Amino acid sequence: MKTYDMRVRITLLEGLLGTSSNDKEVYSNFIGSKAPDAPTMEEEIAGIGTDAFEEKTTTVFHRLEDGTPIIYDYQIRGFFKESCGALNRLVGKDENGKKKKSDTESSKITAHKKVVDQLIFVKPRKIPLKINGEINKVQRPLRAQTAQGERVALASSEMAPAGTTIEFTVKCLSAEHIPAVREWLDYGYWHGLGQWRNSGAGSFVWEELDENGKVIGGNKAEMEELSA
């Protein structure tokens, strides 16, 4: 089956947070946490120590056998779905001043989640991160409104720093979806990948590469010029 391929390199403008639990027994521990005699968070910290508890609850990157951090293809495809859904909400006005759908490529796609699931693919499945410097750990507050009022907790995550690059290939079964993919990648400047993206984390610029690795498109040069 013929595919229409785009080779893409993204460069992080802000740090990308790891999303995988560092607790190797996360599922059994989750079930155990529902047991009547499960320890409270305070009791668990007292039992294993602050450092061990933080290590256990930190989200990290998946890794290859040699230790290289990666993201999975489904994280890019999830970004595509979110981007298409957001850009579909844009509206414009017709010649009479009435609201109408915008002229984005995303607005031309109906049932966009099915389109990404069934017609747009990302390779390889495990996408290595070329880290710019070192992976750090960051902590951030998590706020939630509950029946008992607002609750605040601290979350800890590994973070790939700004300047880290990620290369992958987008394979479309229809050439008509290529412009939409470019539009979604442009949207990454405003709303990026991974956790805490609503705060700007994981935002990026991108380049399209030919088979020899030469830059033939993207928005990296344009956005860097605007930011200068």
Spans of at least 5 consecutive residues whose pLDDT stays below 50 are 25-36, 38-55
Rg estimate, integer Å? 21 Å
Give the end-to-end Cα distance, rounded to a whole number of Å: 44 Å
Number of helices: 7
Which percent bin holds the helix content? 25-40%
Assembly state (oligomeric) = single chain
Average pLDDT works out at: 82
Q: What number of structural domains do the residues give?
A: 2
Pattern of helices and strands: EEEHHHEEEHEEHEEEEEHEEH
Number of strands: 15
Portion in strands:
25-35%
Largest sheet: 8 strands, antiparallel
From the spread of the alpha carbons, the general shape counts as: globular
List its traits.
228 residues, alpha+beta, 8-stranded antiparallel beta sheet, 29% helix
How is this structure best summarized?
With 228 residues, the protein is α+β, with helices and mostly antiparallel strands. It contains 7 helices and 15 strands. Helix content is 29%, strand content 34%.
